[in-house]
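Input record, target 12 of the design panel.
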């Protein structure tokens, strides 16, 4: 039996609805969200709580990466 990958925790439209413009950073945000789910058991709500108030995609990416680095 082949194991299937779980659905993405977040989608591009989620990030766009939050005010982020389309671009390569959307893919990075989706990948980081999935990594946080898989490695740290983060929920969708927890991911969005981390970046609450962040308007620049580079800062959101930095915040999500920092959460992955925590032990």
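The sequence produced for target 12 reads:
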């Amino acid at each position: 039996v082949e194991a299937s990958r779980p659905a993405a925790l977040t989608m591009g439209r989620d990030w766009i609805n939050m005010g982020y413009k389309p671009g390569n950073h959307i893919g990075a945000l989706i990948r980081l969200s999935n990594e946080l789910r898989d490695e740290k058991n983060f929920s969708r709500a927890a991911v969005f709580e981390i970046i609450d108030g962040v308007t620049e995609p580079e800062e959101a990416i930095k915040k999500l990466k920092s959460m992955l680095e925590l032990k």
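Residues 5 and 68 are 20 Å apart (CA to CA).
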